[in-house]
Amino acid sequence: MLEDLDRIGPEIVVMVSAGIILMVDLVLRDRNRGWLPFIALAGLGGAALWTVTLILRDREAVTFSGTYSLDTFSIYFIFLFIGVSGLVILASADYVRNLHNQGEFWALLLLATSGMMLLGGARDLILIFIALELTSICQYALAAFVRDGKGSEAGLKYILLGAMASAVILYGMAFLFGIAGTTKLVSADGGASISALVLEGDPGTRAALFAAAVLLAGGLSFKVALVPFQMWVPDVYEGAATPVAAFLSVGSKAAGFAVILRVFYQGFGFGPDNLVSSDWANIFAAVAAISMTAGNVMALVQTDIRRLLGYSSIAQAGNIAIGVAAIAVGSTLGASGVTFFLATYAFTNLGAFFAILAISQRIGSYRIKDYAGMVRRAPMLAAVLAFSFVSLTGLPPTAGFVAKIYIFNAAVQSDLVWLVLVGVLNSAVSAYYYLRVVGHMYLAEPEDSSPVVPTPMLASALAITAVGVLVVGLAPTLLMDAAQRAVSAL
């Protein structure tokens, strides 16, 4: 039992840190709460160090009777979620000081992070659902944390649609349990498992498996903002606090795709020889194409930069889904393409949101027209936002360019050339609205000449994301190798 607890030590450290923050906040009351974000960062640092010791002690194994796996895949996502949460805390420390209930904000953020970390290693349907709900409930509360009309609307829409998605996921899990007689995706001891049913079951079970998988895919599509379950994204991004929108745009998407890879790649054994691969290749390819197109077309007419990034997030989810479609027909690059894309997207999208946070805090507006001439008022912020938008477009020498080449290559290997063409055309469409904002910042005349200067902590977060986008764009080998090692565990 102690060995099992040791292997989920990073998640426990993050949860305990959330509890410590609540207790410290209770003691401090109205006195200085400036230490709270540093306690949160210390908790994330402790979790990262614990993970490093697990690697050094070679503690990788399947634990808790086969329900959780500490492997290269879960370790990859543990570091990804720790990094995302740490950057969000660093960037939003000064912003949160102006909110009520600061301790609750940091505790909810850490608890959501711990749920995401559990999702990376969960290989049992029950644990997946519990970790999903831990993450989701915290995110619902964070979305409504700003006490105004838009914040309340964002929280209400998110929780109503999220509850529906959770119900759909649970129905799919119940259906799958009824077919397989087990909740384990993969058996650690050679016993019954869902993967064994998919790979060795009677072809007569194909329709039943397909129905269960449709329900699971539908619910998980909500988490990653794929069409037709994307309707919550622009409203929540607009109404939630900007740091929360940044966290949701990256963390929720990464967690959702981690579960999709566990369930469909490992549990359903995606490949040319299983019962449902041909169906899923077509479905995920169609969803990817529609998501890219719908997200980019709707982004063209946006005047609020948060809503623009919301529709951009839908389009980027479609790009990532290209890799899932490639997996379904046996691509060796599809899974690593998804994990690599998620890491590069984290650097890129966080950089964009952090720059928007710094600018909008100063000018008091999220309208794109108010970003006119920003390069004269805030050269660093304008440069980071422009560089992030260039990366989201998929132009060199950025991480986004390498990620798109990687995932398009996986699709070509899988004979999904038509899907790559759709992706390239959508990249051209996205260039219009991304570069329109860049041109507005660099070519238009500013209405106000007062400087916009980020706080030191926010400037540090911006620098880290910008360097990450550039370094991965110029030297992606290290991250590619990590992504390939991660999916080898599946």
What does this structure look like?
The structure is a single chain. This protein is mainly alpha-helical and 490 residues long. The chain has a domain at 270-490. It contains 20 helices and two strands. It has helices spanning 2-7, 9-28, 36-56, 72-96, 102-121, 125-143, 149-180, 194-200, 206-224, 233-239, 242-267, 277-299, 305-328, 334-363, 374-377, 379-393, 399-413, 417-443, 456-474, 477-488; strands at 61-63, 68-70. The chain has a two-stranded antiparallel sheet. A hairpin with a 4-residue loop joins strand 1 and strand 2 (68-70). Helix 9 (206-224) runs antiparallel to helix 11 (242-267), helix 14 runs antiparallel to helix 19 (456-474) and helix 17 packs across helix 19. The relative contact order is 0.09.
Layout of SSEs?
Blueprint: H1 2-7, H2 9-28, H3 36-56, E1 61-63, E2 68-70, H4 72-96, H5 102-121, H6 125-143, H7 149-180, H8 194-200, H9 206-224, H10 233-239, H11 242-267, H12 277-299, H13 305-328, H14 334-363, H15 374-377, H16 379-393, H17 399-413, H18 417-443, H19 456-474, H20 477-488
Antiparallel strand pairs: 1-2
Helix pairs in contact: 2-3, 2-5, 3-4, 3-5, 4-5, 4-11, 4-14, 4-19, 4-20, 5-6, 5-11, 6-7, 6-11, 7-9, 7-10, 9-11, 10-11, 10-13, 11-13, 11-14, 12-13, 12-18, 13-14, 13-17, 13-18, 14-16, 14-17, 14-19, 14-20, 16-18, 16-19, 17-18, 17-19
